[in-house]
Model the fold of this input.
Amino acid sequence: MVIRSIARAKINLVLNVLGKRPDGYHEVETVMQSVALHDRLEFSPGTGGIKLSVAGGDIPPGKENLVYRAAELVRTQTGIRQGVNVLIKKAIPVAAGLGGGSADAAATLVALNKMWQTGYSLSELMRLGEQLGADVPFCLLGGTALAGGKGEQLEPLPSCPGLGLVLVKPPIGVSTAEVYRAFRPELVEKKPDCRAMVKNLKEGNIAGIVENLANALEPVTMKMHPQIAVIKKKLLAAGALGALMSGSGPTVFGLARDPEAARAIAARYDKTYEQVLVTGTCNRGTQIE
Done:
């Protein structure tokens, strides 16, 4: 039996950092949004533990991979000793602020829950996901959500309007831990307002969504990598309604009214060395194909 799952990327429409927690993590408040761009994973029974192979992305196929850790977590929690072979077909850029690793881990939890008939509910899978990373519970839930705590406390929101997205990633990777270590509240010029974003999402107010795009980590990553500011300007010049760095970066997304408008923006974008992808918002997260 082969199980195929879809692991969708995410963006942060708003991201605020509220301070450092006693456990070393930062307290955040963010509005997260699933996008149509996705990795595909294939799971088949194996005999020799957990074996990973990767196509289309430069990520480690060993124990440091979140997919491996997710599979091992299920085995540890359930006592299951069955092996599994996993093929990860990457389409989400790596180390990009788009949650690709977290999405793959979420897809692994869902697929193995089915393959090994472990009977976990979505909420139980989300609690498992917290042990793997702050974004994993959202990748399991999908759609649009307000997130607090480390990012694991989720409040589902009404679906975002079907917006087009142009994702632009420079050829650099960013360490999330390094960005958080360098964060200083005084660097934030535009204070993120999650409540205003939630209000505009509930009203389907695209202009309000655009107006309230804000990311407290953007100035930090931008200071390390000034090309992020250049990418934002180029997206706006190409016709994006608004532009913002996602997560800890370095990917910047440009919003468009629909996917057709996003394709037009991507065609006009003054591309030099960046990776440019066209996608759109999506009201679903991880799912079995």
